[in-house]
From TrEMBL:
It is found in: Periplasm. Spermidine binds at residues 35, 85, 168-171, 327. Its main location: periplasm. GO terms for molecular function: polyamine binding. This is Putrescine-binding periplasmic protein. It comes from the Bacteria. Keywords: Periplasm, Signal, Transport. The keyword Metal-binding does not apply. One of its GO terms (cellular component) is periplasmic space. SUPFAM superfamilies: Periplasmic binding protein-like II.
Amino acid sequence: MKKTTCAITVGLFGLSLLQTAYAEESTVYLYTWSEYVPDGLLDDFTKQTGIKVIVSSLESNETMYAKLKTLGADGGYDVIAPTSYYVAKMAREGMLKELDHSKLPVISELDPNMLDRPFDKGNKYSLPQLFGATGIAYNTETQDPTHFQSWADLWKPEFAGKLQMLDDPRELFNIALLKMGQDPNTQDPQVLQQAYDELLKLRPNILAFNSDNPSNAFISGETDIGLLWNGSVRIAKNEGAKIDMVYPKEGTPLWIDNLAIPVTAKNTEAAHKLINYLLSADVAEKLTLSIGYPTSNMEALKRLPKSLTEDRAVFFSQDLIDRSPWQLDVGEAVDLYEKYYQQLKASQ
């Protein structure tokens, strides 16, 4: 999941300009994780189609959802990148357009194991792009990986003021619930209260919350322990950081980042072309080589070097997959997760 330098980064401020820009059918607006558009990735798309891509940096599913709700019909984005459990939520609430599979021939190249998942049966609203999970990242020169065999290890007093956490309510509650032996997709208010109480005990150990290029803190040396996504570890390694990842014995929720078209999109024709391009073998290979996340494109997977596909911090073992749950939609309970999460961040 995850700063974008190709094209233009458009924030909420820039959205006021979208209405006039949409007079040009040669423009498509992409709202995706900041790490997912490395330099040059979209150059060939514009050369091939004449369509300019304007990119906005997505910091969290919750922020994306709230922004689209707030903007309503004036939303303006053509392609978005929701994580699996948010695909289900947004589809249920009528926020996503149905995809026209006839305009997406790339589907035939995608891994069947990543298609037709419970969050979007038949891939009616989304197509998978990258496969991920969260683990405990550590500096290999300063930390002993045997100290991070369980999620409970993060609660140790020796880590006071040292942990970087992902700025994401589900990620934080996932680790607390797994520590407690509870379902990380629970909707039970009493269990969530208990998980919140556990996170309050963890709060003194938290140095920062960061989901926007979280690998940067490890690259710069600002932190040497914390939660990271598997692709973020690859990015840090590519920059020379001494870093590795542990996946605790309790397992970790698995997720897929997908490409979808919001119901407020103005240029659906270009949106389908962009999705087809981003999921194509050549582009998927470049992206995974850059940021590490396992791609859904089977041809691209075949081309990747063993130095990447055999790195168990980035490409998971079957054992990890077998013992890990999928991150699912929690329905209306998401509001309770968010409420507790904001209270946790505000606490000291």
